[in-house]
Write a structure and sequence with these properties.
mainly alpha
Length: 183
């Protein structure tokens, strides 16, 4: 399963201690930088906070938005340089870049449209690398607007536990996209 968050991260999320969740995820990645799961967890936590919360909603006592952006730049650059052939890294980071290209302008490309296209290309590469991975297929079909999107999602949720995906706020985000907002 993609995005296996440490229990400490999930607990910090549940207690709305986002700075702690990010610190734990970042420390885990720094201790083993070539652990793709740890890398995706820290990128995902940071992207989620920068995307969905303002400074008022999450008091970032221990880390500023600029510091978060620097960490996102650092981890994303590392991912792009070292995990070009990893389907999970390509699909998730590609999705984040496609959805919020402005967050990645200093890492991917300084042109907004080209940055966004890089995200789409990463998702396409992920699908080429792992066409039988249901999560990759579902995000791929979502991104290209495929009529088979719902079929892919249905197949995914026959194999994955919706409840387990909703244990983490970040994974819950993908669950809402691929399962629907009715959960």
């Amino acid at each position: 399963m993609i995005l296996n968050f440490e229990e400490r991260i999930v607990n910090a999320e549940k207690n709305e201690k986002w700075h702690e969740a990010i610190q734990v995820a970042y420390s885990s990645w720094k201790s083993d930088p070539f652990d793709s799961n740890a890398l995706l967890c820290v990128i995902s936590e940071i992207w989620y906070v920068l995307t969905f919360y303002t400074d008022r909603e999450i008091p970032l006592e221990f880390i500023s938005r600029d510091d978060l952006q620097e960490k996102l730049d650092e981890t994303s650059k590392f991912a792009i340089e070292n995990f070009a052939q990893n389907a999970e890294v390509n699909v998730l980071l590609g999705y984040y870049i496609d959805v919020m290209p402005y967050m990645f302008l200093s890492v991917v490309h300084s042109d907004y449209d080209q940055c966004e296209q890089t995200g789409v290309n990463m998702i396409l590469r992920a699908y080429d690398l792992a066409p039988n991975d249901l999560f990759v297929e579902s995000l791929y079909r979502c991104t290209i607007g495929s009529p088979q999107f719902r079929e892919s999602c249905s197949a995914l949720w026959k194999k994955e536990s919706v409840a387990e995906w909703n244990e983490s706020a970040v994974k819950g985000y993908f669950c809402r996209i691929l399962y629907g907002d009715t959960i």
